[in-house]
Each structure stands twice: as C-alpha cells, then as structure tokens.
Automatic annotation (TrEMBL), chains A, B:
The keyword Cell inner membrane does not apply. One of its GO terms (molecular function) is monoatomic cation transmembrane transporter activity. One of its GO terms (cellular component) is membrane. This is Magnesium transporter, putative. The chain crosses the membrane at residues 291-311, 317-344, 365-386, 392-418, 430-453. Its main location: membrane. Pfam families: CBS, MgtE, MgtE_N. The keyword Transmembrane helix applies. Residues 209-267 form the CBS domain. PROSITE patterns: CBS.
Amino acid sequence: MPEQEPNLAPQNEVGLVVQQLTGAEGQAQAEVFSEILEDAEPGTVALLLEALPLDERYERWQQVEFADRVEVLSLMRADPRMGILRRMPDDEVDLLFAQLSPEDLIEWSDYLPESFTDRALAQMGERQRQHFELYNQYSENEIGRYADHQMLVLSTKATIGQAQRFFRRIELDCNDSLFLVDEEDHFRGAVSRYEVFRSNPDEPLLSLMDEDSRAISADATLMEAAELLEHSRDVELPVVDDEGGLIGRVTLRTATELVREHYEAQLMASAGMNETDDLFAPIMKGARRRAVWLGINLLTAFLASATIGLFEDVLSQVVALAVLMPIVASMGGIAGSQSLTLMIRGMAMGQISAGNLWSLMKNELGIGAVNGVLWAIVIGAVSGWWFSNEIIGIAIGCAILINMLVAAGAGVLVPMVLQKMDQDPALSGSVILTTVTDVIGFLSFLGLATILFL
Amino acid sequence: MPEQEPNLAPQNEVGLVVQQLTGAEGQAQAEVFSEILEDAEPGTVALLLEALPLDERYERWQQVEFADRVEVLSLMRADPRMGILRRMPDDEVDLLFAQLSPEDLIEWSDYLPESFTDRALAQMGERQRQHFELYNQYSENEIGRYADHQMLVLSTKATIGQAQRFFRRIELDCNDSLFLVDEEDHFRGAVSRYEVFRSNPDEPLLSLMDEDSRAISADATLMEAAELLEHSRDVELPVVDDEGGLIGRVTLRTATELVREHYEAQLMASAGMNETDDLFAPIMKGARRRAVWLGINLLTAFLASATIGLFEDVLSQVVALAVLMPIVASMGGIAGSQSLTLMIRGMAMGQISAGNLWSLMKNELGIGAVNGVLWAIVIGAVSGWWFSNEIIGIAIGCAILINMLVAAGAGVLVPMVLQKMDQDPALSGSVILTTVTDVIGFLSFLGLATILFL
C-alpha cells in the first residue's frame, strides 16, 4: 500500500529503487527485484541488498545470477557480505570461491575469517595463489595491496605502432596511458594515448615517453594514493615497489571509492562504529560491537561524576548549581568539537603540520576567547537572573570562559597528539575532548562556587 | 630548525610540503615556496596556501604565476579564496576576472558577493555572459550548474572516420565516449572510443551507438550524479535538460570532488560549520560564525537545565543524584549517536526508505534493549555500591534503560523527519537528538528518584 507510506523524497536513483523494493513483500518483492536486476549495475544491486533485513536479503540474493554474484558481493560492505557467505550452503560457497580472482580475495580477506580465506585459496590454481601471496605482503593501509594488475605495459624497445595496436585491442577502465618497463620490469615512464595516436607508427615508443611520469609507491597509504590521483591530470597512475618494479596501477575510480570509504569510516568512527557495519546487524552482534564504545564512554562519564562528587558540600547547599552544571559542560563540548572538526578536516588533507600548529592554536584560542566572553556574559546574566543570585552568575560566567578556552586548546592539541600516537583522531578525538571539557567544566564551575559560597 | 620540531609523520605528499613550507619563515619560506611551485600541481598549491596564516598566505600568493592563479583559486575553498580576492588590488582582480571562464565564475559565484560577480561579468564578452546565464538557471544543488561543457559531440549522420579523427585530435580529461545528437541537439546515445577505433572508418557512426546510453538529468542532485558515475562503467556521462538537449558532461574526476566535498560538508556540519570555512579565519569572523551554533546549543542546554530545575526538591535532599545525573544523559547521547550515524550513512547512499524504516526501527530498538539492560545492571550496581544506597541504583538503572531505548528510537526517527522537512540530518540531527536524550534522561532519572525518595 504505497499510498499510505510517508512520501519520502528519494535522495538519488538508488533511493528510488530502494523505495520500490522495500515497499513490496514476499512474491511481489521477488518480482520487483527481478525487474530491477535486468538493468541495474552490480553496485546498485549491492546497495539494494544491504538495504534489506537479513531474511529478505538472503531471499533476494538467491535471485542474483551466478555470473554476477562475485561482483555484487565484492561491492557490498564487509559485514553484509560475510552474512551472506555464512548463510550459503558449502558447495555454493566453494563454487563462488572458484570464480574469485586473487585481487577479489585480497579485498575480501581484510575482513574474512581465516578459515574462509583458506577455503578460497584451496579453490585457486598455484599461479593465482602466488599472486595472492604477492599482494598480501602489503598491509591493509598500503596501496600496493589494492593495485589493479590489469594495465597496458610495453618494453622500452617497442614501437609506436605496437602501442597503437595495444590501445585498440585492450579495453580497460580509466586507461589513458601505457607504461614502459625495462628488461627488469622496472617502470621507466608513461606514454599518453593521445601522443601515441598522433605519432608515426614506425618511430620508437621511447621517443614519446614522459621522463617525469609520476608513480605511486606501493607502500603509500590509500589516502595518499587517492590524493595523488585527484591532484594529477591523469586517470591512472602506476604503482611501483621499493626497487622501482611496476606492480600495478591505481585508477581514478578506485580513488573515488577510497575517498568515500575513508570518509564513511571517519563518520562511523565518530560514533565508535566500523565502516563494515551492517545496516541490519543481527541484534546480539550489533549490541556487542556498540557495547565497547558505550563502555569507554561510561568510564569517562564516571570520571565526570567523580569530579562532581568532589563538590557534594556546595551542591547540597546550592541546588541551583546542579541545575546549571550541564550548561557549562555542554558549551565547552560544542566549542571543542568545532576546533576538533576543523583540525580533522585539515589533517585528512595533510594541511596541518608542526610549522602551522602554533598559528592555529593562536587563532582557535582567539576565537575561543571572543565566544567565551560573549557567552560568559549571556549565560552569567541569565543564570543570575533565573536564580536571583549574582554570585551564581559570576561563577558560571567565569567557568564558561575558562572551559571554552580550554576546549579550543584541547581541540587543537588532542588530534595532533593522537596522530603522533598513530591513533585515529576521528575515532577517539571526541571522547577525549568531551572528557576534558566535562571535567574542566565541572571543576571550574563547582570549584569557583565553593570558593564564593563556602 | 626542523630538528627541534616534533616529528609528525606527514599523512601524504601534501603533508610533506606543508611541513617544509610552514617550517620556514619570511625569505626562507619564499624560497621553499618557489621551489615547490616549480612542479606542484595547482591542487597542491591551493592546499598549501590554505595551510598558511593569512599574512603569510597572501605573501606566498603573490609568488604564484599569473597564468596559474585562476586555477589555484578555483581549487581553494570558498572562504580562503574570497580572503585573497578581498586583499588583491582592484586592477589585479579585474585582470584575474578577465581570465575567468563562465564555468569558473559559476563555481565561484556560489559564495561570491554579488558585487564581485557583477565585476567579473563586466569583464566577460557577451557570449560568455550568455553562457553564464545558461548555467546559472540551475541551482547550487543541481548537476546542470556544474556540467563540463567541453566534450566530444557529433551528429547522428557522422561517419566512424570522423569520430576517429575527433578522438585523435581533441584531448580531454576522462574521455572515453563521444555523444551523438540529432538536428535539434538532443542527445541520442553514446559511442565508445574502443568501438570507434575497432571499426571501419567509412561506416556510419550511428551503427556503433549504444541505444541504452545513460544520461544524467540536469536537475539531478550532485550526489545523485556522483553515484551514477561511480556505479556506471564509464568515466563520463552526458547531462541533458528537460527536453533531452545535451548540455554537458560529468566526469569521474568531478564525481570524486563531489564525494569529497559532500563528506567534508557533512563533517563540518556536524559541528555547525561550513565546508567553505577557512582553517585560518579572521578571529572575529570565525567567532561570529561559530557563535550561531553555540547559541542554538545553549537553548537546548537551558531546556535540559529547566528539566533538572523541576526536581530541585529531590536534588537538595539526595546530592548523589546531581553527581550521577550526567551519566544517564551521556549514555543516552552515545547510544543515540550510534543509531543516528548508521542512519546518516545509509541515507547518504539512498539506502533508507519508508519500506525498510520499520525493520530498521525494530533492529535498533532490539540493540538498544540489549545494551540498555546490560548497562542498566552495570551502572545500577556501581552507583548503588558507590553511594551505599540500592534505591539510587534502581533509579539510575531504570533511567538508563528508558533513555537508551528512547535514544535508539529517536536516532532512527529524527533524521527521517529532518529529511522530510528538507533539513540536513548531518547538521541538526545530533543537536536535536542530544536534546531528546538529555531531557528524557534527566526526566526519567530524577522523576523516578522523586517517586522513590519523596
């Protein structure tokens, strides 16, 4: 009964098919899905399956043609993918694994239990297993692991004519260049498709080679690689190992995926979750994962409570303090999160360094001082009037100013310290910052109140 | 003295040059920068300038070659770009505007004061002004506004040979297809470069046309367009207007930029800031922008305080309640942000619709119930033991359970309601959610305590 559903404007094409699909049930849903399958891209099918509760998802999954299954699964997030694999009968899983390329398995293996990886390897030929081991020597944050091994490569001795035939015959995504290697398979430079087609087929290809061709080091991080591509004028860049050996390429399409995954991971990390998380995790599993983050938060909350506990005397005498307390913590938390967010954005782009840290600190402290004074006056006046007690107004005003200055400073320093400790500021930054602003907020407000009232 | 600087591992290549540049001062910095300028891409130069405090930034800006200035400014975020424009002498600005294409001006004009846009238009020829007006009819969230107008277009009557010459002669970024139009410039279909080069030059080009070619509607949102490209197998897609007229194309490179900007905007919005914000905003300007968000937060904080204010009686008698209060609010806030974040991620990908809303709600409530019971027991036990008072333990345990269930429900509903109201859930979602969990947390905890103690 779609007429009775709220009329939610779909955000995009996926939104439209999600609406059609989730609006139907049982047999009707199966029919809608087979219609969608006729011309949907595998990426869309993957998003659709993820948008279904687990039982419906597995039923619809069975409608996906066998030939498309590896690609659809590859494009799903890791948890929903694993959920489907666990539900599939053993023989179907083995058939699927037999279709997996070493590149696919590398991507899957980041989140696959070892027993599954071993089963998949058992389905592979010796050569494919060797390939897998080759890529597997790079860690999950090194671009070498995810390099695309399909590319146009010719010897530095080839002719332009050979390159022309190559470009005509082999159809690859995001392919504007051909990579030249010497006898030892070391990357020497790239040749542009445009140059190749404009030039005389009998000339040596080397004459067109760009000596300054950029290459990405295999141990570069995923975001380094994505940024190099974004800022280059190419749609693909070669990936080379320590000795300069050509091991693959990274395309602009991969860069787009990496950027999206990076920001999705940051978004999820800000709530203590993973980018692999399923929209419909089984309840116990979802609860267990989130419990860890709640537990960490509880420790910091008890710390804040313990701080308040130091001031039971003044609280029992001036109950207004208990009423106003959350305002100090809250304003500090928001001001701190503004500085922290600016830092996290800058750090993601590599724009923050030791050299500009002090200038940033001065700027943030300046902004913190201006807003601190402004809101100290507003909150002090309102609180003093509310409880008809100017001492309360003075205490909360001073506490607000102190806390907002501390928040600005901590917002700049906490992410820098975390990065130095190889921790992700997007994950733990806000918890640490909130702890700081809570504790400082309660200490300054209740401490000042103790001095002024007792 | 780089030896004394903390050794911060740069995140990427940009990080490395930022470190070199910000580590130097005055004349030394000028020299480092001119070395960097020799082979840095304009995108890197833009990021570097943004990483400098305002005075240094403008000094370095003057070193950028005149020919590169438009591109570098185009690649900067809007606020730092505007900061530079405001500092430049009038005649230099006019010279710069004279170099601006209508496409550049469209992008700049989103954040340019009208007086500047008018000055730029005055520098343009009649034809360019018409182009500007043409693109300007699309709003800031419609892809038609940002379509790339350089593309390969031929008539449906052309031959394959003509297409081959076209592909050889014209070098464009992300270009694998040629678009065919009829006499009325209506898009009819795309032809792949690979097909063109494999086929007989004398045949009609129409024979290679893909009838099912995808096109993006000019009024599609930026994220719709980016997703269509990501999920397609193409590196470019045509953009057509209401009547099917071909108005431009969107490339995979643009899609990558749009994705990054979307997530940067979401990240910044989560702290009440803009993606255009300068890392080094002038203090008063930065303070004014952030003050709005702090003010909104203050209103919700006063709402929470008012809730506590209802329970002054019980608070003045049982001071332990004031000590424990923040724990209830904090656990609810974290649990709610987990549900909210999962929703925001799903909504960005179009995966959430009326049809799966109820299933999502059940799942989140289930997870909320499991964690609610778990942490109710833990927190209840610890609190009862801390204050040697089992009634306090019971009150806080029940409040935790209630608040975590409410948090899960609100985490699902709040972003859906905001989307229906055309509000960005990433901007206002967390403020509304925190208000809900604060108020419900204090109400349930202090309300139960009142019943049990008084």
